[in-house]
Known about the structure:
Number of strands: 14
Oligomer: single chain
Bound molecules: S-adenosyl-L-homocysteine, iron/sulfur cluster, FE3-S4 cluster
Strand content: 15-25%
Largest sheet: 6 strands, parallel
Helix content: 40-55%
Structural class: alpha/beta
Distance between the termini: 55 Å
Shape: globular
Radius of gyration: 22 Å
Amino acid sequence: MAKGNYKILTYGCQMNEHESEKLAGILTAKGYVPAEKKEDAGMIVLNTCCIRESAESRIIAHIGALKTLARKNPELVVIVCGCMSQQDGMEASLRQKFPFISIVLGTHNIDRLGEYLDEFLEGRKYLNRVVSGSGTITEGTPVLREANTNAWVNIMYGCNNFCSYCIVPYVRGRERSREARDILAEVSELAKSGKYKTMTLLGQNVNSYGKDLEQKISFAGLIRQAAEIAPNQTICFMTSHPKDFSDELIRTIAAVPNISKSIHLPVQSGSNAVLRAMNRGYTREDYITLTQKIFKSIPDAAITTDIIVGFPGETDEDYLQTEELVKLIQFNSAFIFMYSKRSGTVAAKLDGQIPIAVKRRRIHRLQEIQIQISRNKRGK
Ligand code: SAH
Ligand code: SF4
Ligand code: F3S
């Protein structure tokens, strides 16, 4: 017997997309069914992101717009979870601005959604379930996968890199790797199901997978085993951090036919001064050498990237170095962002914040250049 229906609104990265599949898995296991539109749903879950201010403002506007639905249906359950709610002070602010919210939880305990929901429905009293710390890894959470040809597989959670602009280590906690046997069991099950053409191994920095495990295993070792277990699927992976991309991994990608040759390798900037201030742990020259090594062993590699323009202190000269690097590497595609100040991060306190007009000029120029490069590459 169906209990009611739900709509999940997902913001942010692939990690969140996959976590929404877990939220859907929990809710369907409890007898809820998905609704087509939020207007028809008895429960709305917002799985949020706070990587840039623009993401956050959009979500806040979307929550605000739910007021009308909440007024029409006083029984409406509104749940806010994910990275945005994990930020310091956010839960109190959400509660104050939007009294119709039922439950707020962060990133560390979404597997307990079912429990919290029961608790809320019993008392119909607002619940703050944001917990601090790094969270533990829970296995066995049901997953309702989106019906498409790719299956996401988490291999690790959190991040230890503390790039100076980035909020992720604060809202996702320290790096934790899943046990290889659990990952490989999931890969094996997905392969047997025959439903997927690709599987994507997910982590903020997949190249540092396994460093925290008792039974040491490298990312290259893991992906090789995954590819063996799923010979009829292509194994993709993201995201790769340039500072940890090992020769062993390059050799593995080159040697194993069903490992994807698409490598997302965020460079962030082409200026050494900016890279240093970003705490990225590599230089422009390191990055160039790494891509040359990749192309030498994997001639059909497709390298994509992320770039931030307008990082505090970025001079015209620094920016031009990024332009030059983009022209030199010839990325298949690039996601280019304007630096966004994130409270609590090191870069938020730096002098030399760049005016929005300058950031806009730089992003437009760089996007134009990249569009042309991507077009040429596709035409090849
Ligand atoms: N873990 C991945 C990506 C995480 S976030 C990595 O290390 O590459 C995805 C992208 O968002 C980043 O690569 C970066 O380019 C961008 N980003 C992160 N914080 C940002 C900020 N404060 N302002 C603008 N862009 C940001
Ligand atoms: Fe953020 Fe850097 Fe970690 Fe990526 S590696 S999530 S950019 S801190
Ligand atoms: Fe992803 Fe956004 Fe969180 S990019 S890790 S959902 S802050």
